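Notes, Module 5: Reading structure tokens.

Key idea: the token line is not a picture. It is a compressed description, and you learn to read it the same way you learned to read a sequence, by spotting repeated patterns. We will look at two proteins. The first is printed below with its tokens.
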Amino acid sequence: MILVTGGAGFIGSNFVLDWLAAGGEPVVNLDKLTYAGNRENLRALDGDARHLFVHGDIGDAQLVAGLLERHQPRALLNFAAESHVDRSIHAPGTFIETNVVGTFRLLEAVRAWWGGLQGAPREGFRFLHVSTDEVYGSLAPADPAFTEQHQYEPNSPYSASKAASDHLVRAYHHTYGLPVVTTNCSNNYGPYHFPEKLIPLMIVNALAGKPLPVYGDGRQVRDWLYVGDHCSAIRRVLEAGRLGETYNVGGWNEKPNIEIVQVVCALLDELRPRVGGGSYADQLTYVKDRPGHDRRYAIDARKIQRELGWRPAETFETGIRKTVQWYLENGDWVQRVQSGAYRDWIATHYAPA
């Protein structure tokens, strides 16, 4: 079996669902269930004996030690993280506690347990750490994309906390021999994405007749990766990634945020036209840019293609259509995850300029 941390969040839940749908071995799923961790994401697994959900914190060393000893996983995949830049700007302490201290305590628990293994279980164990391209900082328009050798230059409390966790994982491999591998991904999108992030926020607000808030001039560039492709990359890295190595995972889709919003609006115009006519793009509203907003990210994913034979299966056009259709078909999920606290947060952080 495998142990997944953060498996009720956006990427983690997609991974667990994909893993079990593909016939993977049983999963123990540890998640703290913060605002973005949601049991609703895993509803399809209710009653599935292959999935054991445990409500808890990666920083609870005693809990983690007990899970390791009881279940003897062949791998631990660490998705657990606070992951929204805007939230990190206003509440950085939570990000330090989860992403830095939590990762440290998780590594310590794993190191103690793994150190007592013998033979094949010890040799075969893997600790896969899921991270982000934001640890590399920001690129100028003509700069080459981030490779795995790019210097870390995090610019937000979120990216700094993830950079620290990456360094801890690396250090535990080089100091203690812990069998680790790290992935750094670009911006994910797809089903079960909490509706504070750009794409789901645009879909949800558009359908509700609300403004579509775009930071600054909307020309910030990101590489977009469909979450299903990210899951397949992680499976491949777990299967054949070299110990101690980092693999960048990207979608080969660099696009400015304003173009993403326009594409979403065009798809909604096609799939669910506005009552009374007109385009959803009429709801677009520019808001004050967030502090220290990185201008461009771009992932060079040639290493994972060269070494492991992985490339994304989805183009942006196919992935974004699947995503918009999913949100149109799952309005009940959106309603259930949008608590009063979420609505207050959106009102505060996307106030008009």
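Here is the second protein, with the sequence above and the tokens below, as before.
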Amino acid sequence: MGVLSNSFFCPELSPPYFLPMQKGRVIQSTGSWYHIDTGTEVVRSRLPGRFRLEGKEVTNPIAVGDWVDITINDDDTGTIEEIHERENYVTRQATHGRRGEHILAANLDMAYVVQSIRKPALKEGFIDRFLVTCEAYEVPASIIINKMDLAKEKDLGFVDHLNGLYSKLGYSVITTSLKDEDSIQELSKKLEASTSVFIGPSGVGKTSLLNAVDPSYTEKTGEISDYSNKGKHTTTFAKLITLENGGHLVDTPGIREFGLFNIEPWELSLYFPEMLEPRQHCKFNTCTHYHEPNCGVVAAFERGEIDPNRYNSYLNMLESID
């Protein structure tokens, strides 16, 4: 969506009057209100209905990280007049029976999928779905494995395997623990001078990591239920935080499932880096690498060139979108 001039004509006022527009970034959305940081102040702003109609396939026409133009009303609230075109964004299938997509964060330099080694247990399928979405929407991605202080000896070999697997595919793996100051410092350096997002299930420690990276930011954190080993939701709305080190980080509510949106079965393998070369040897351009004859990806898998868990993730995703 394009951007108009830096003023907005208001025909209701006489004589003709142009309200000055200010550019700002969405730092929080609470449903009906958007908090816009203009650089000098944060303005609570509303979105006119025309934008909601235009974004009917999207549950949230504006996401945290978006750049917008606003006009200031007499009561010091704002009205969003224009939405700048996004460079990229992370999205997922809408939940709770809603149709379309839900955009989690926009205009990102890096997206981190956060998992814990235990309490709750790490889910490779969640990681792979997240990485596919980042590939599809051109968002650089990394993996954080948190709570390494809870790791048992057998977990260390598993983490080494994941590090080798994903690093070979171009994704860095960062291991962290609130009890390991060096790991927190390493993470803090990666967050400097960039806009990033933490995405993962409840209880993996996203907000706790944010608190550790920037002690000036304090947010309520939750404990893990002994009964379910699932985290309790503590972050209600996504919010963009300005860190002391100069970076910006979007903290998001916990996500139990990461549904893919607007990806066709035949194109899913385009977002698996290890399948890009083998798929060129498939007999059919629309091969789904499951049941078709003369499939280059299946042949590569049978030769041991594609990790079995990654291929299983691919098949699970294929089934969910087919």
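Summary for the second protein:
- Confidence is low (pLDDT under 50) at residues 1-5, 220-234.
- The chain has three domains: 7-83, 89-251, 265-321.
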